[in-house]
Amino acid sequence: MAESARVTVGGVEVSVDHLIGGERVASERTFECRSPLDWDHTLADVARGDASVAQRAVAAAVQGFHEWSGLPVGERASALRRLADLIEARNDDIALVETLDMGFLHRSMRERLVARGAVNFRFYADMAEAHAEPRWPARGTTHTVQRMPAGPAVVITPWNAPFMLATWKVAPALAAGNSVVLKPAEWSPLSASLLADLTVEAGLPPGAFNLVQGIGAEVGAALTADPRVRRISFTGSPETARHIGAAAAANIVPFTAELGGKGPLIVFADCDLEAAADQAAAQYEDSGQVCLAGTRLLVDAWVHDDFVEALRARTEAHVLGDSRDDATTIAPIVHPDHLARVEGFVERARSAGDTIVWGGRRRSGSLHYEPTLVQPASNDSEIVQREVFGPVLTIQSFSTEAEAVELANSTRYGLSAIVYTNSAERAERMGAAVRAGIVWTNTFLVRDLAAPFGGCGLSGIGREGGNHALDFHSDLKTLIHANNTAA
After folding, report:
1. In the chain, at which end, N or C, are there fewer CB atoms within 10 A of the end residue's CB?
2. What is the pLDDT of residues 255-309, one digit of tens each?
């Protein structure tokens, strides 16, 4: 691999260049990468890609696709397992870089999120290798369905939990035999560069995995518009998804998008109220910058006041501080622009007559925003209907199960929901009635990787996870042989 410009982040060396065709590639222009833990300090000046870089990366992916897709599935799986081993060996380095770059709690990074990256690669390596082609008789013939690698895939990832979410998307694309061009978010690009180094160390052929850094409108748009790209996988905002979807449609390219949520956390009077309050307070962690968070608290009127007091006590126990300190429970907001966006939502809610029950202020001298609870004047309030993506919860009460369902389904989002009840029958009814890609009962963030993942409405299109992801990254072929065909 060619020498690249590198910086030291928390004692860890990180390249600031692209990776194209197995080689590090610089750009004439750069963009600043700063840490939300110390915004006055520049972590790195990162290569700022443009349309020419995008074209070069896709060309490399086209070449890499031929070699990578031509390998037996067992060889591809072995390479991905080597990559998983390397991620585990570098867990602490990746976790620290990502904490400094993006701000999430170091404890969560090193104990859970980075390790999940290794799990993602092993899971899809195993699943691809174990795949059995469906085969059945029909009208004197035998039908067989095969997966064909689709071609170069563009993967665009968000700024929150960027390493884990990159591996979640890259792993099935590579396991299916596709080559990949990864474009990470410009607010948190550094851990993707560490992943790029590891793909080379794991022995992936040049061009099988490519990394392009830069601003979405400049390089991301060029990647998604390239007619040589055969799959696009995106996580981010609905606004950006509309542009990517238009580019995908122009080239007739399958496109999957996970676009965030406005999940309800529904608390029934028969539940373990203490556990429900614990779960609600946990939604503030990582400053609410989690798409699956249950940010709309819908509480049975019979226990509303008791629940608020239990939640208040837990909220007051939160510690806003340095994400590297294990005593910290709420991280800073990723970027001043996003902090201003969160603050704007709360100020507009205040002006519109919604009640700020607690919080509603930024912390002086940092990018922290206080954990905030808003009681809206109406279900039509902006704070209820739009994704804030910050440490801001709303609370509303309901009197009947039907009313709870109506409130839960009253936004244009549909990614996830959380239900707290001790009734198995109610859990089944709510699971069926709430419109969301995932509904948890008496738990949260527990999910088998084989399950489909995605949302309804503004929460996205398509499904990832398990065979759903491998099918997405494949072109399916049906072979039909007459039963008298010679062996």
Report:
1. C
2. 999 998 999 999 999 999 999 999 999 999 999 999 999 999 999 999 999 999 9
How do residues 171-218 score in pLDDT, each as one tens digit?
999 999 999 999 999 999 999 999 999 999 999 999 999 999 999 999
* 469: phi then psi, degrees, rounded to nearest 5: -70, -40
Q: CA-to-CA distance for 487 and 484, rounded, in angstroms?
A: 9
Question: Is beta strand 263-267 parallel, antiparallel or unpaired with respect to 416-420?
Answer: parallel
- What would the pLDDT profile of 33-55 be if each residue is shown by its tens digit? 999 999 998 999 999 999 999 99
Catalytic residue annotation: 258, 291
CB 396 within 8 A of CB 379: yes
d(CA 44, CA 8): 8
Structural domains of the chain in order of their starting residue, each with its CATH number: 6-259+459-478 (3.40.605.10), 263-441 (3.40.309.10)
Measured in degrees and rounded to the nearest 5, phi and psi for residue 275 equal: -65, -40
pLDDT digits (tens, 9 = 90+) for 393-416: 999 999 999 999 999 999 999 999
The dihedral region occupied by 48, where left means phi > 0, alpha psi between -120 and 50, and beta the remainder, is beta
Alpha carbon distance 343, 165 (integer Å): 26
Element (H, E) at 425: helix 424-433
Q: Is the dihedral of CA 283, 284, 285, 287 positive or negative?
A: positive
